[in-house]
Design a protein that fits this description.
Keywords: Signal. The protein is an all-beta fold. It has no helices and 14 strands. A hairpin with a 2-residue loop joins strand 6 and strand 7.
Length: 275
């Protein structure tokens, strides 16, 4: 089943004011993220629903390095536009299913029998385009509000010893099952910038958003404290301490993909500016 649903999946790397001068800047960085993801399935013999965990049941890594990239352009003292991308791709080698289950993806019903050997893959890509406006400024302080749109692409795959099911009967063996979700949503943010010295700056940002649409609900909490050091007039290094937690839940146990994406700890960022 190909779904197009407005979920809450926000990962904001806003332009944290490493430079308030007009021009183009590029930022790259990364962090280690913890992920807990699952999808709805059924146990045929018991005729009841069950969540299949991508990590504990299918062997995907619970923690993985996530790189990020951001391009931003500040038109003048008050207006900026930014585009950023985050990617997290994971796959697991073939492993044996302890208890058989059925699941519905892309309008088809698939079955993995007990002792079947399957492998899995879950790719998450997040893109954000946002506009920022300077709400208040003084000689050393700046307050910026942001308004934007995130698009999250999720691609789940399972391959190995699977069968296609119709009327509770196995009708064909298949090599691969796939489910794709595209989830756009708006987002709001607020950040504060303090120019400590000509080479040092501090940034605080906070984001919170909650949304419920149809059978899906999600919530984001994103708090960050960051310090940047200008190495040259064009190149900066930033170190941040970030608390980030995202949850997306499907309220029907028999279908849908649930995600828990969380991180708490340091983030390293590098920025280059083109004036």
């Amino acid at each position: 089943m190909k779904a197009f649903i407005p979920l809450l999946f926000l990962f904001a790397f806003p332009v944290l004011a490493a430079s308030v001068d007009p021009g183009l800047s590029v930022r790259v960085g990364g962090f280690w993220a913890s992920v807990d993801s699952s999808f709805g399935a059924r146990i045929p013999a018991l005729n009841r629903g069950r969540r299949i965990d991508f990590e504990s049941d299918l062997g995907l890594e619970k923690s993985r390095f996530s790189p990020m990239l951001e391009l931003s352009y500040r038109f003048n003292d008050n207006h900026l536009l930014a585009l950023n991308a985050l990617t997290l791709h994971r796959s697991a080698a073939t492993r044996e299913v302890i208890r058989g289950f059925e699941f519905d993806w892309e309008g088809q019903t698939y079955r993995a029998q007990s002792d079947a050997r399957v492998s899995s893959r879950l790719d998450i890509d997040i893109y954000q385009l946002f506009y920022g406006y300077s709400l208040w400024r003084s000689e050393d302080l700046l307050l910026v509000g942001t308004l934007g749109m995130h698009v999250m692409d999720i691609k789940a795959q399972m391959s190995g010893e699977l069968s296609l099911v119709s009327d509770n009967l196995d009708i064909a063996n298949v090599r691969e099952a796939e489910e794709t979700l595209t989830a756009p949503l708006p987002d709001l943010g607020l950040m504060g910038y303090w120019q400590i010295t000509p080479r040092w700056e501090a940034v605080l940002s906070a984001q919170y958003f909650q949304l419920k649409v149809d059978d899906y609900k999600g919530r984001l909490i994103d708090l960050r404290a960051q310090v940047n050091r200008a190495i040259t007039d064009r190149f900066d290094i930033g170190i941040a301490w970030q608390y980030y937690r995202l949850t997306v839940d499907h309220e029907r146990a028999a279908s849908g993909i649930d995600l828990r994406f969380s991180y708490q700890g340091p983030t390293l960022l590098f920025q280059y500016r083109f004036f």
